[in-house]
Design a protein that fits this description.
The complex is a heterodimer of chains A (644) and B (318).
Chain A (H helix, E strand, L loop, with lengths): L1 H6 L2 H20 L6 H19 L5 H15 L6 H17 L7 H30 L9 H25 L24 E2 L5 H4 L4 E8 L9 E7 L1 E2 L4 E2 L2 H5 L13 E7 L6 E2 L1 E2 L9 E3 L5 E3 L7 E7 L11 H6 L9 H13 L3 H14 L3 E2 L10 H9 L1 E2 L1 H14 L4 E8 L2 E3 L4 E5 L3 E9 L3 E5 L1 H5 L1 H6 L15 H22 L3 H10 L7 H27 L9 H16 L9 H11 L6 H14 L6 H9 L11
Chain B lengths: L9 H20 L4 H12 L3 E5 L6 H12 L3 E5 L6 H5 E6 L4 E6 L6 E5 L6 H13 L1 E4 L2 E4 L5 E6 L12 H4 L2 E5 L6 H9 L3 H7 L6 H12 L5 H14 L11 H17 L7 H12 L13 H11 L4
Parallel strand pairs in B: 1-8, 1-9, 2-5, 5-8
Antiparallel strand pairs in B: 3-4, 6-7
Helix pairs in contact in B: 1-3, 2-11, 3-8, 9-11, 11-12, 12-13
Classes of the chains: A alpha+beta (644), B alpha/beta (318).
Amino acid sequence: MFPQLGNMPIHLVSITLLPIMWRLLAEVRDWKTPPMLLRLIATAFAIAALVVTYGGLLGRRAAVSMLVLMLSLKLLETFRIRDARIVVSLSLFLCATQFLFSQGVLMIIYITACLLSALIALMYLHRKEAYEHVGEAPASGHNLFTQVAFGVRLMALALPIGLALFLLFPRWASPLWGLPEDALDARSGLSDSMTPGSIQSLFMDDSPAFRVTFEGLLPSHSELYWRGPIFWDFNGHSWQASYLNLNLIANNKPDPEQAPFRYEVQMEPTEQRWLFALDYPALTPSGTHLTVDYQLFSTRPITRLREYVMASDPDFLDSPQLGQTLRRAALELPAGFNPRTAEMMADWRKEAIRDADIVQRALMYFNQEQFHYTLNPPLLSNHTVDEFLFETRQGFCEHYASAFTVMMRMAGIPARVVTGYQGGWYNEIGAYMLVRQSDAHAWSEVWVRGSGWTRIDPTAAVAPDRVEQGAVDSLAQRRHMLDFEWLRNMRNSFDLFQHGWNNWVVAFGSDNQSRLFTNFGLDFLDSTKLVTALIAIILIISAVMFMLAPLLLRVRSSHKQDPLLRLWQKFIRKLKKAGFISHPSMGPMELAANASCQLEYKDDGISRIAELYMLCRYSKNTGNLVELAALINGFQPQPQLRGT
Amino acid sequence: MTEIPLQKTSSGSDLLDRLKEAVKLVNQIVVGKEQQVKLAFSCLLARGHLLIEDLPGVGKTTLARALATVIGVRYQRIQFTSDLLPADILGVSIYRRDQERFEFHPGPIFSELVLADEINRATPKSQSALLEAMAEGQVTIEGVTHILPKPFFVIATQNPLDLAGTFPLPDSQLDRFLMSISLGFPEPNFERNLLTSEDRNLMLRDAQAIISPDDVLRLNEACQTIYVSEALLDYVQALLAETRNSRWFETGLSPRAGIAMLHCCKAFAFLEGREFAIPEDVKAIFPGLARHRMTVPHGMETSVEEQISGLLNQVAIP
């Protein structure tokens, strides 16, 4: 329930928490249900708040938020067992909805804990109800531990069926639930525009962006520029993609055979359309295309974990010739902004012979003037580049990339801004590279005759550490209170589990499914066959479970571990097989007397066993357990009645 | 039930043999009631007082007298009637003119075994005169405390409560009785034996004391050495807990009753010739122990006995 609160705006969170707190107080103070009218008003208010917030009740977020709100309001009138059961059942459902938002390992652990507590609550409710119906006291001697153990056992019972469902349930190539477009709201990650200062929030976000497993050659850290959205249009404040670069398809791409880097990317859902690759992508995974500026675009937003194989060739020559239209687009600047920069660039232009000289001079300028790399730069107002270059001189990658690109364009050099990720943390154990949101970066590309589009990272000129160590490690101070290095390292190591989980569970789609069946010699199973197999297997498992359940769910006391009692239970089972049903309230001698009457067995062996057991269990000197074991193991009563 | 050979200690064996002989003798006088006789003896061994509750004429008094006879203790019988006064039980101080002082004349309570016959026919005032004596083994008359002899053992008989002219015993007094047993009508073959054999009174007169009061004290001590395992304590506690469940009785057994249960159980095991107690002992003494301490909840048609056996069937032996 609580992760959902994180998905909701703060005012909805407070509305949700209010009834919960009221109910807690009511329990302490012994309050009664509030009047009907009040409850109706509260409900109407909650729905109104939802509509205002989400503009409707449809969509994933709005619907789940409504569920959360209604569940919390339900608590207002939950004073009977029936209501409590509804609340628990609803919260079970709510648990399931959480997978619409996250399918990570931590979420699984949390949901499991939620399920467990819900199960225990249900067990408690059942016992209480039994108590009210029959007048039988709730079974005593059940402490929290045995209850939890029982809940775990219940869940373990459901596990085989869950496994069967997981393996056999037909997968569609697209998500089972069709998410309406409006549900795809902004998530963490890069966005489709860049205003200097916008990536800043990403630096605080340590959640994984994607993971990469390299085959063979591992690129050096300074080569790890993960290409993402590329921006051409500048309106004075922010950078955006242009119509051209989004819609033109790349004319040629690197030869995959020549590409030195081959790797597989496992990308967390972004709900955006671009994929990430190192410069320059040589492959187009199915459902994607490569634009003229070598962005990888998916036809559908990435709403699930996405895996693709990629090859990259860093030495590829991007656009030896630049067409007029693109050239114009790469030089366009809004009129009336940043006059001081324009003036300076005009001077530089006069002094320079080649374009490359201006690029070098700009980098030198960043390097030698008093520029600082910081995550908390002052705000910029109207002439962003002027203010940045001549006044504040503090910023991070976005500021430098933006300013540099504007400078280049003013000097008549075609330039564009590239955003993406730089760097990555190599997990030695898992042999994969983890790229976090905090690795987000922005840099520039300039077009120079002869070498085509060339990557220039002005940030590297200011803070070379940024490229070598990553944004977070290059900072002198901590980003926030809990930002310790050891914590980051621990988190990086923990990511191994998440990676494995993604590989084996979340990424288990229709491909893996059919691959699994191929191993068993089944070439292809269509949905119908799958469902038939699924139903059959579930029926079989249910039947087995049904028979085993009494055995598995028996609430064992700690005494059950006693070998003596195990022996005695064995004896009783043997008697039962022979036709004598004992009752738990029978003492050993009583049982022996009754059993001897009913069953025929040599030399009153039954009484002998009972006597030995009695000695072992009740007398001071512990009796001969070995002899008892021998007697009981050798005990073979005939299923025969004495009377007949 | 199978007899388990007791690993006898030198002093105990002779004592136990004589005890068994005493039980046998009582069984010859009160025929066909072996279980009740055993319970009566275990009550005696556990230093408790015994309440025999049944219809007139089924042998309550005979049993009580037989017990008194085989133990060979001083034995007084008090026939309780509605005009019985406490002084009739405890004794009175009479003014001796020649010595110019009061002299205390002990009442029938000053003996090792008191048979309080038809106890519920006396008024509560007289009934409660027995209270201090039973609980503390002493009586206080006119400010002077007199110690009663040891062993001190009260056997009371009472008619079923719904008979006319009875004053039901208060709960506090009922609790003083360790056990209550009911004899019931004899089986036909034992009844034939009763009808044909000699007069019970003659048999009682001829009967010899088999154990002495000192023996009784030693037996009491011997009973305390009976071993009680953890497993058995578990069972005793389970039973106690179950009696407190409202579906069986109005109120559950008190901790004092729990201690009493353990004492009885040890005594019963001793009588069986074992050195340790087993659940069967508990089951055997439990009805006698619980019957007079329990009432069936209002609106239930079942009798206390039925509730008790239901409860015993309900509680699993751990």
